[in-house]
Write a structure and sequence with these properties.
The complex is a heterodimer of chains A (553) and B (318). Chain A has 553 residues and is α/β, with parallel strands linked by helices. Chain A has 22 helices and 20 strands. Helices cover 37% and strands 24% of the residues of chain A. The N and C termini of chain B lie close together (11 Å). Classes of the chains: A alpha/beta (553), B mainly alpha (318). Chain B: Belongs to the binding-protein-dependent transport system permease family.
Chain lengths: 553, 318
Amino acid sequence: MKKRFTDEDVLLKIRDLKIEGYSDETWVPIIKGVDLTLHRGEVMGLIGESGAGKSTIGAAAMGYARDGTRISDGSIEFDGMELTTASETERRALRGSRIAYVAQSAAASFNPSHKLIDQHAEAPVHYRIKKRMAAQEDAMELYERLRLPNPREIGFRYPHQVSGGQLQRAMTAMAMSCRPDLIIFDEPTTALDVTTQIEVLAAIRDIVDQFNTAAIYITHDLAVVAQMADTIKVLLKGEEVEEAPTREMLENPQEEYTKSLWAVRSFHSPQRRRPADNTQPVISVQHVDASYTGGEKVLDDVSFDIYPGMTVAVVGESGSGKSTTARVITGLLPPSSGQVLCKGEPLPPRYQDRTRDQLRQAQMIYQMADTALNPKVRISEIIGRPAQFYSGLRGPKLKQRVDELLDLIELDPAKFYSRYPPELSGGQKQRIGIARALAAEPEFIICDEVTSALDQLVAEGILKLLDRLQSELGLAYMFITHDLATVRSIADEVVVMQNGKVVEKGPKDEMFTPPHHPYTDLLLSSVPEMDPDWLSTVLEERGVDNLGEAADV
Amino acid sequence: MGKLSRLILKRLGLGLITILVVSVLIFFAVELLPGDIAESVLGQGATEETVAAMREQLGLGRPAVVRYFEWLGGAVQGDFGVSLVSGERVSAAISDRFVNTLFLASYAAVIAVPISIILGVFTALYRNTIFDRVANVATLSTISSPEFFLGYILILFLAVRTSMFPAISSLSGSMSFADLLQRTFLPMLTLVLVVTAHMMRMTRAAIINLLASPYIEMARLKGTPPWKVIVKHALPNAWAPIINVVALNLAYLITGVVLVEVVFVYPGIGQLLVDAVAKRDFPVVQACCLIFAATFILLNLAADVGAILTNPRLRHPK
């Protein structure tokens, strides 16, 4: 990974870049003067929280301003060509041919109406670099290099016929189609499971190495950037915090902000044990099978217990049945066999048949606070309605209760009582989601990926809040997540799910010490670590052909 | 393919059931009239004997359900009974007229649909430019004026002032195809002006709606020129809503032409319907309504099937 770069090799030179975004009828600065120098073959990691302007800078490196943004000042020089003054046609001629882009969600960024290989061949044919047949041949070769299964056949499928991790690799292949000098990777693995992420990371690193392509790697995941980048640049609110070679940055960050990012996983909640007396579990899932109408079995003999005041983390890849289990517990999806007990009493399978007191017991907090809160309803009503429904509070008593709940989630009632969700930040919205769940005075809350849409610092705040509420109110949590770092910091017990089955369960400390079930082991060893040699080590241990989807468990 | 054909068969079945329900509504709506058909046809001046004779002739003494099934059985074979006014077979009276209406509708559709979609694509491509605004204002003003008014304006300028086209679109059997097109030009133009705005604006909206999709941004970042982004990347994914609006407008071209046919004295089914209503000729009214309903349902069915066929997820299952 050690490379030396000289001044002659400079490919991209951005100086004092300023970008503005249009909101509320005025132009507000998004990027406030950023410099960036990238050499041929260099991989630079751009990291920062959402809103730091990483993606905006990535697009600007292509001379592209997204709808509603404009480049207001500064210079962007790509291989001697000034992009800010070039004509749109000149800039467009670079895109796809000399600078390519890999988007966050490959599933959304491939056109659903065209075959992968046709989309792949579009740029080379358009630029008359290759004839269609030659471009397709080349696509198959790239698919093979990126270790896609059936490289000669997979391109003739439509995007919805290919899995997420494969699509992300196909998109990397597409970016390579014209052998560009620079590729912008915009959070290419954020939407993937850890086990899939690892193979995509390996594929990207390989191909960038093979063609000596320069890259800007945008991510909010420090451990990922540590594997990929030669240099790391940290951004905060449109400004550069610092830049240094990867190892130096990891070992010796200079700025306070960078140090706080590095230290973010410091929060650990002490592990609790099951009560020794024969207390009934607050929720007991017993031999549950479930399927969606007419479909295959999604849950297969799922059983686990959640004891009062404890946090049970349910982990697994997407599609493993974590959220379906939550739907069965809440009664949204009646199981086809098995039952759910609440403190020893069986719960009716359908939520329509449950009493108010049974409904109260199963509250949910959702992943996307954005979509889980009605944007046209005031905070007071969002929290007030369940308080009224479950406790029958009215008038001044109801207001007092809402104020209490807002206090609990550390938001000032005077400030937030009559505001609407869109006026709030992501973390604040998630807090409102928590307050809404608390308004029912439950003993048990299901947290469905509550922190995965949030920045690390904000997520940390939410975890601390949940932990505090747990010890103050004696709540039990079912914590659905695919993020094992979150599991380490907050869980008491862990349930590992795969393909609708529970493959392993137990107290956290046991789960994190070997020997593991092979699938647990795969999950654990796939979580990126801050060590820049981590990826290479894992690849050596597993062998390149034994990654992620290819790994047979 | 199994899943796809099952889906389409299901839609067809639903369409059939809808037509049945509509036929029940049409038949029993007439039954609900105060008094009975004989009384309302003959009017208040009729004597007891004539009313009784008419009842006898129409078979009104038997239960409505039995008569419904007789009527339905006939209708399925194309026999809608006998006109109360002329004594002619309803099917004979309708068939020529319906062919004329279909001709006018197809004439208008062949011109309006391509124009609307092309205009829609161009307004999406040059959105918020002068071209877009002019196209929007023009089509909106034509849709917001009543069609008989549009018809008269066209007659005033294209028939009375310049005499380029005939103001009255009466037909005769010996006309050549070119004559026919010229004769029916004004009603066609009126219909085109009425339906274009709807289809054009839907095409524009469906495309613009997709322009914020990640795959459109991806296409742009691959250096695809703007027109190709719209035609190759947005349009194929916008077909479903466009097809639906096109089908609704085609149905309107057949069922909504009443006023236009009256204005241009065009011998279509709409005029027949107006006459039949005025003369309380119930078998004709029922037949026209059933044909209109069937057209509507058939076209919407076609739109549903079209939308299914343009969805790559259904066309190419996993």
